[in-house]
């Protein structure tokens, strides 16, 4: 086996090029690789320690050279940042720390000029408590109040929350409004005697009431606002949460985030689909039609497929791979089940290995692997049970990347994945920013470890994230020892993770975009996952010992060195069958 030192070797025929170009123009979203830009942590142009639009703009050549087809930008709207921007105060403007609306419009043009598409993040389940609607609601505007979920409390004097739901971040999902700020409350009942409002996340993120037609109309208008500015689509935050069960009954398991497979009256209610039918009509009224990807944590691939019916959303994240251990049998099952259910509704599968809410794969795979899917928060809550073997985790993460990028459908890459970054687990408590940490009373360290600012260059923090004369340190502390993880350090190293992603993305574009469904190679070692798509076969060895490989030209390998005909433990390769290249 040879190390990755060069790009793909077998060139496409002109016909294949034409076919790809055509596909990319019309249904580009079926096969794209989308890069997630967590803007706060991507690149800081003005030295305030926060990433921003101009910083992102300066990295467009990097993203273009990486070979991704589209960018998804996490919320960039004005926000008090109670939940890192998922608490939106104004959906039609830009957070001043990130830039201006004019800069955002120029960025959208710049992304298009660089040959990529741009998806924004829409947050329809809740607003910020600083949104003008919520302020008006608390100031006594009945019409504004009816756009949120206010309810009287239970028990004597309404002291108890209206039901037993817990916030996704920990603690009750209800906050009582002070009587003097809540005209509906009982002023005689004491200082905190108003009604309660629902927040499935932080108290600064009041849930909207989607049975109110004003909410429906407002969000369709917000979609148009950004579509008119050239945005190609939206990632939908908490897409499964907008509609709550009638009467807001107590939940059998009050913690909505504790078990994605349990039913909860706040999640995945059938009424949510009507909302997306309306959004699809808006998206289809544009030329080219705009697209959506749903963040929907639901009980099964069958439930997920309901969001993907032909008159609803085009894509939805398939989170099972992200929850799967590095185990051939579990990964194979996930791929089969996901593909079958998405196929049934004519939708592509949408693969994700990581995002800003979960432990980075390098660290997830750096400890003993289980035999079944895990809760997304499980890894960070159990991190103390075993030291992380980061080099092992990195080897496995590189292999998992080759698996993901070889699968049919869409693949998302979270910023820093291409640099092989690990979770930063040692953030001091006083530096943690994620509300999960505070709301869980420290029982969950939260998601900051996957959000640490990107190291671009240099030998010490801020590693080129901020300019040399920056006034502030990065908003989350970067670790020492990331000098070899920077993009600059990896740029010319053919064995680097950055080089692996570049080569794999180019090979995917050349050989895999139209290669059809997965065809499993049977009879392999139980630790091996192997399938072919067209002329390429992908071999993943989740065991620790080497196994033999069949003949074939090694197109990409996750491990450097090694002998021909051998697949090392914890590694993956793509083999090209030269005879089948058309
Ligand atoms: C999902 C987002 O990815 C996460 O970061 C956020 O905290 C919640 N939705 C609430 O908006």
What does this structure look like?
The chain is of the alpha/beta class. Helix content is 27%, strand content 12%. It has helices at residues 14-26, 53-58, 60-66, 101-113, 132-138, 142-145, 213-227, 272-284, 301-305, 320-323, 328-344, 361-364, 378-381, 390-406, 435-439, 487-491, 497-512; strands at 33-37, 70-73, 117-122, 150-151, 174-176, 196-198, 233-236, 291-294, 315-316, 350-352, 410-414, 519-520, 528-533, 536-541, 547-548, 553-557, 566-567, 571-576. The longest helix has 17 residues, at 328-344. It is globular and about 75 Å long. The model is unreliable at 1-16 and 186-192 (pLDDT under 50). The structure holds 1-deoxynojirimycin. 1-deoxynojirimycin (NOJ) is lined by residues 83, 86, 123, 201, 237-238, 295, 356-357.
For the largest beta sheet, what order do the strands appear in spatially?
Answer: 9-8-7-3-2-1-11-10
Structural classification: alpha/beta
Mean pLDDT: 91
Name the beta content range: 5-15%
Distance between the termini: 24 Å
The count of β-strands is 18
The radius of gyration over CA amounts to 24 Å
Short summary:
The protein has 582 residues and is of the alpha/beta class. The protein has 17 helices and 18 strands. The chain has an 8-stranded parallel sheet with strand order 9-8-7-3-2-1-11-10. A 5-stranded antiparallel sheet has the order 12-13-14-18-16, with helices on one face.
